[in-house]
Amino acid sequence: MSDLDLPISVALGVGLAAATGFRIFLPMLIMSIAAYTGHLPIDARFAWLATPSALAMLAVATLAEILAYYIPAVDNLLDTLAAPASMVAGIVASAAVMTDVPPIVKWTAAVIAGGGIAGLTQGMTTIVRAKSTILTGGVGNPVISTVELGGALLVSILALAAPLAALAVVILFLWIAMRFVRQLFRRESRPDN
What we know:
The protein is about 80% helix and about 0% strand. By secondary structure, the chain is mainly alpha-helical. It has helices at about 5-20, 25-35, 50-70, 75-95, 105-135, 140-160, 165-190.
């Protein structure tokens, strides 16, 4: 393994993990398609991701997840359930693409960076959706769902094409989301005149 392979491999894993914070199954489906078609090398222990049955199951799960996020009240329930699931998906996505990496590096990066960034991304989207529900009575939630879907798609594809650029997009998203959430909390804490 060259000195450049490790950072690229970690950036690819973290990018895919961050995408699972937006949607759990879409990044896994994109990763599965790329592995199945030979465009993405994955660790031998995750070869199941490149099988037709994994493709079929992930396609169905992706479609169900996308549609469910457009159903009022179900979207907020899914955010609650998605938090731990996105962390697990982030760990799997990270570990699967870190080939030829020493196990201690792979699993440390997968759990801390992959699971952590997936959880952070999911947490930010959960807060934004909750605030949207409060401020718009849920009317604005389909817009949030569409942005999350676009984010999952963009970051997944970008992670495969340009892992370092995907990492930059994820950092930018988290920075913008944190500023947005802080502004919302400041507005709530101001006394009404």
